[in-house]
Amino acid sequence: MEDSYKDVLQGISSSCCHDMMECFGARERHYNAGDVICEYNQHSTLVGILKSGSASLIRIDVYGVRTILETMESGEMFGEALAFSGLSEDSITVVCNKAASILFFEYSHILHPCGNSCAHHTALLENVFRLMSRKSMALSERIEVLSRRTIRDKLLCYFSLQSTRGGSNTFDLPFSISALADYICSDRSAMMREMKNMRQNGLIDADGRKITLLLD
Questions:
Q1: Residue 101 counted as domain residue
Q2: Which of 2-6, 66-70, 77-81 has the lowest mean pLDDT?
Q3: CA dihedral over 80, 81, 86, 90, signed as positive or negative
Q4: Which of 21, 116, 174, 191 could form a disulfide with 71 if both were Cys (CB 3.0 to 4.6 A apart)?
């Protein structure tokens, strides 16, 4: 099993992984940064495994407001919570952040294993539940960020979470500065002004996507 699959296919051997993907009728696709990977609607049943690269799950409401719901890295799965959900009229889109390879297959293959009752199907289902639990924790973090009242407080909360996750005061944002504004649900110009003020006040240092949190 390749390292890039270590999350969703943990505990499944390379040979079993290959057999399972053939059984699922999985197909691999490649994308460049900025490409739309897929769009979800009420009839979508595809899920994807991010073999390499990174991507974002983006919601665009009926008024055109863009919100980043989730960022995903190599080894993660997307679409499992959307494939059979009754979605609203809002657009749910997966966009490539960094050149990515993705395996697609129908969600029904996870819920309804083949007649052989292969052990790797059970292992995959366990891993999917584990990933969904982790995504639930990520959603809790997102709620924590959005619950802050000011742009500065939202940024400091998000930067602190990233610092803690990486074990360092210096870290790289998983998306662009513009996308960060979407993630914290703030106007981009207002957020940029606040980041400039934070640099001047000695709270952060920023060089492109590289952020250093200067708080004690």
A1: yes
A2: 2-6
A3: negative
A4: 174
Is the separation of the CB atoms in 124 and 20 below 8 Å?
Answer: yes
CB atoms within 10 A of CB 45: 13
Asked whether the beta carbons of 46 and 29 are under 8 A apart, the reply is no
CA dist., res. 135 & res. 69, Å (int): 11
- Do the domain assignments include residue 89? yes
Is the model's pTM score more than 0.85? no
Asked whether residue 44 falls in the same domain as residue 112, the answer is yes
Q: What is the pLDDT of residues 17-76, one digit of tens each?
A: 777 777 778 888 999 999 999 887 656 678 888 989 999 988 887 777 788 888 888 888
- Do 86 and 60 lie in one domain? The reply is yes
CA–CA distance, 129 with 172 (Å, rounded to integer): 28
165 and 193, same structural domain? yes
Token pair for 59: 């919601």
Q: How far apart are CA 103 and CA 59, in angstroms?
A: 22
